[in-house]
Design a protein that fits this description.
Elements (H helix, E strand, L loop, with lengths): L1 H27 L13 E2 L2 E3 L2 E16 L2 E5 L4 E6 L8 E2 L6 E3 L2 H30 L4 H26 L2 E2 L5 E6 L6 E2 L4 E7 L2 E8 L1 H4 L20 E8 L2 E16 L6 E8 L16 E18 L8 E5 L5 E5 L1 E5 L3 E6 L6 E3 L12 E2 L1 H8 L1
Parallel strand pairs: 1-22
Antiparallel strand pairs: 2-21, 3-12, 3-16, 4-11, 5-7, 5-10, 6-9, 7-8, 9-11, 12-15, 13-14, 13-16, 14-15, 16-20, 17-18, 17-21, 19-20
Length: about 375
């Protein structure tokens, strides 16, 4: 019993000692140092707006097409008896060079018959004229002989023309696009025999939106000369050839003058001389090549360039007032590209905007800028 009493007193003593020790430690605790409350407003980067003049480049793309292209068809019937070795896809030929010949025998015979008939009708006409002068023939008989001579002469012209049509040749220097007939094949008038195009020049149709047209000075119809073209903006074409990007400088010469009903774009045409460089130096630009185009645009004066990342939505900027509060304002965007937007209304040079992304900005929201943050630290 005495042992149990001692154990209880020991437990009570330990508990009391613990309480006294805790009280002593509590009394020895130092008061925490008091600090001024810091400004916890969001720190943002700002940009002071400045007026500038920009020369815009309009981007477009298109396919190189020949300016002159011909679908060849037979004009007379007969068997093909001769084909030039150049009359193959990719073959280059000179102006007037014979590419194909249709059997001319029947047409040569027709020319001979017509010549003989003309000689006969000429003799008859001369005889009728002499007899008319001597009073043995009437005026009507002389007129009939003259008409017969004229008819025979016309038949001779037609026969010679048909003989000339047995030669297939073109009035321009060019390249064969396709070959649709071959040696020994019988053709009739209208039978397709191939396609060719001229290599003196090429054209590239470039689509432009209505917004693009505001920055490109396209030649008007009154500016177009007798050649069907005028001097327009310069264009730099680019394409990848053999793994490397190559550039060509061309010029817009006209607009097609209509708006495409489906895409709502207007096509302008750029002109390229000697695309295959058959008569000059440089890198050839083959027909059918897909090219990207940079068109030299007009200058825009007194506009403001703003980083695209600073724009909220489609047209809103976060303006910073002199009191470092936010004002959300819509602006007029003249043009934009991958990096910048160009503002021509709703903002003035000297104003400040926030370039830091803010999750949920509100009008009147206080922020800290780099200048106010430095002033607070000092």
């Amino acid at each position: 019993m005495q042992r149990k009493t001692k154990r209880i007193l020991l437990v009570v003593g330990i508990f009391a000692g613990t309480i006294l020790a805790a009280a002593a430690l509590q009394s020895m605790r130092l008061e925490p140092e008091k600090k001024d409350v810091e400004n916890l407003d969001l720190l943002v980067d700002v940009l002071e707006l400045k007026s500038t003049t920009e020369s815009f480049e309009i981007l477009s793309q298109g396919i190189v097409r020949p300016r002159t292209q011909t679908v060849l068809s037979a004009e007379v019937s007969g068997s093909i008896v001769e084909i030039s070795p150049k009359f193959i896809a990719g073959g280059v030929f000179r102006a007037g060079e014979v590419l194909m010949r249709i059997d001319p025998i029947n047409y040569e015979a027709a020319v001979e018959r017509s010549m003989a008939l003309v000689r006969q009708r000429q003799i008859e006409n001369d005889g009728a004229e002499k007899l008319r002068l001597q009073g043995y023939r009437a005026e009507a008989e002389l007129a009939a002989a003259a008409a017969a001579l004229a008819s025979a002469s016309a038949e001779l012209v037609s026969a010679r023309r048909n003989l000339e049509r047995t030669y297939i040749r073109l009035p321009y220097e060019g390249m064969v696009l396709s070959k649709d007939a071959d040696l020994g094949q019988f053709v009739n008038p209208g039978t397709p025999i191939g396609s060719t195009f001229a290599t003196d020049s090429a054209e590239i149709r470039l689509p432009l939106t209505d917004q693009d047209l505001a920055f490109v000075e396209i030649p008007s119809s009154s500016d177009i000369t007798g050649t069907g073209s005028a001097n327009g903006p310069l264009v730099q074409l680019s394409a990848v050839q053999k793994g490397q990007r190559v550039l060509w400088n061309v010029q817009i010469v006209r607009s097609e003058g209509v708006v495409d009903e489906l895409s709502r774009v207007t096509y302008v045409v750029a002109h390229l001389d000697d695309p295959y460089k058959l008569h000059g130096e440089g890198v050839p630009l083959p027909i059918g090549t897909f090219v990207s185009a940079r068109i030299s645009g007009s200058n825009a004066v007194d506009i403001i360039q703003v980083p695209r990342s600073a724009v909220r939505g489609s047209d809103q900027l976060l303006f910073i007032s002199d009191e470092d509060t936010i004002e959300i304002r819509s602006v007029s965007i003249l043009r934009s590209d991958a990096l910048y937007v160009y503002v021509d209304g709703g903002a003035e040079p000297g104003e400040r905007i926030a370039t830091t992304a803010i999750a949920a900005p509100t009008n009147g929201m206080s922020v800290r800028t780099a200048n106010t943050a430095v002033a607070a630290e000092n």
